[in-house]
Amino acid sequence: xxxxxxxxxxxxxxxxxxxxxxxxxxxxxxxxxxxxxxxxxxxxxxxxxxxxxxxxxxxxxxxxxxxxxxxxxxxxxxxxxxxxxxxxxxxxxxxxxxxxxxxxxxxxxxxxxxxxxxxxxxxxxxxxxxxxxxxxxxxxxxxxxxxxxxxxxxxxxxxxxxxxxxxxxxxxxxxxxxxxxxxxxxxxxxxxxxxxxxxxxxxxxxxxxxxxxxxxxxxxxxxxxxxxxxxxxxxxxxxxxxxxxxxxxxxxxxxxxxxxxxxxxxxxxxxxxxxxxxxxxxxxxxxxxxxxxxxxxxxxxxxxxxxxxxxxxxxxxxxxxxxxx
Amino acid sequence: xxxxxxxxxxxxxxxxxxxxxxxxxxxxxxxxxxxxxxxxxxxxxxxxxxxxxxxxxxxxxxxxxxxxxxxxxxxxxxxxxxxxxxxxxxxxxxxxxxxxxxxxxxxxxxxxxxxxxxxxxxxxxxxxxxxxxxxxxxxxxxxxxxxxxxxxxxxxxxxxxxxxxxxxxxxxxxxxxxxxxxxxxxxxxxxxxxxxxxxxxxxxxxxxxxxxxxxxxxxxxxxxxxxxxxxxxxxxxxxxxxxxxxxxxxxxxxxxxxxxxxxxxxxxxxxxxxxxxxxxxxxxxxxxxxxxxxxxxxxxxxxxxxxxxxxxxxxxxxxxxxxxxx
Lengths: 325, 326
Prior knowledge:
With 325 residues, chain A is of the alpha/beta class.
């Protein structure tokens, strides 16, 4: 990590109230994410991995200030983003951007590419029309599109090109942090590597930080410097990507990685079979949330005590009773 | 190779004609699947892989798409000339399908048990109570926990993985000879996907059924399939045993696709890319359809369509390319 972290997340939690039962008479709480701690330095990529419902998307929405946390803080450049107002908020909005999964639904089909890409500039910065054009053309050039594409409409482009347009719109304000939520999973295989390389190039050129949410573990391994494995709203393991992939410490990480299918018929897989499915976040298990499916469950300790996320050497952290004294 | 193939598709052509254009999303396929074998059909969107699946079960939209030529033989019996009532007896009983999205392939207003017994009632009628028992049995086979309770559940009460198991239960309930699975795990988590693929393999070992697995995911192909057919622009451009195709891809498209994948075991440097975009089915391309994106292409590639040729002397690996010996 180089210098001070750009983003610091401390004890971040988000709980949703839901009504269940007949006519919604029962009020209950879903702890979508609880007690997250992590930070990202300039030019770094942090990946959030886990099964659906583990809180990845809620986390990114909290970081983008699309949702208010129940507890905890998100600091961007040292300031709590949920306290920002006025000009500071505008500056935050232009310095933090996002690219979403589906370029068919994330781009307004009725506006020209120039206007779509320029939107964050128009909203957040005061520029003349000529300056906006210069910035839009520069952004299109960065993502490998031509200046004349600015006059076209979204339907004139293929999926891969649309994702390039979405990326141009995300980088046009010269952000420091871009949230990538499944950025290549809706693209064809032959297009994916182009876009993945583009993310790497942009990061090298502008020192961008990425927060990556992707279910494809090979893509995650390729793009991320560090990875946070989430299970039922909590981080269960955290560390440098290569360390976590090569020597997973938490039994859940082990099982999750063993489920990934290498594109190699000769590869030896020792698949760890997790029993059952992810429990409902409405009624999470006592103790360690993973213990009912765990192949290394120790017994009473796992069933009754929640394991804290304990730091180990080399920036690694694991929340598991196997690693507590 | 001695025994006759279970499914034999020869020169299948499907035409879609609209007011604006007419084109062939499936343009002269031939392939076979033997009993107990899994054939993976790999391709990108628009390559015609789902159209192939639909035409085998004769489920193409009636007015827009037509099978123009070819033959589809299941156990030696021609399917393309069957009448609709005859075909209805084949569907579900001999050919079963598992589609991508269990959300839409199950009916939300009927219980799981009712939907499994519907297939059974059509092909092997019996009293209501036996049908229910057989539905519970089918759920047990796809490893649904507590099948006696789940049989009365509605699809909305089940998770995505569980729903896809129910679709699997419907598919195997009549002991089909072949299952056509069209991207059945795309909407599932990796962990659930791994469980589901293992289940398919176990069912295959038990019943000896064949599987035609349609996917864009080389990870699945490498782990599940015996043979692969790679599709591009409505044609099979390469087919062969899975280990040969991964070790020595004969078609430049296959080679480039495999090279473009990030590796799970860690990787240095930039990813290989394929330039350009995949063609859409309405494009008109002279010569080899991959030539505009191919690094080996020359003048002949751009003007003449390459025939399918053997990639090695064993005769089980072929590719449609002028530069097989590159």
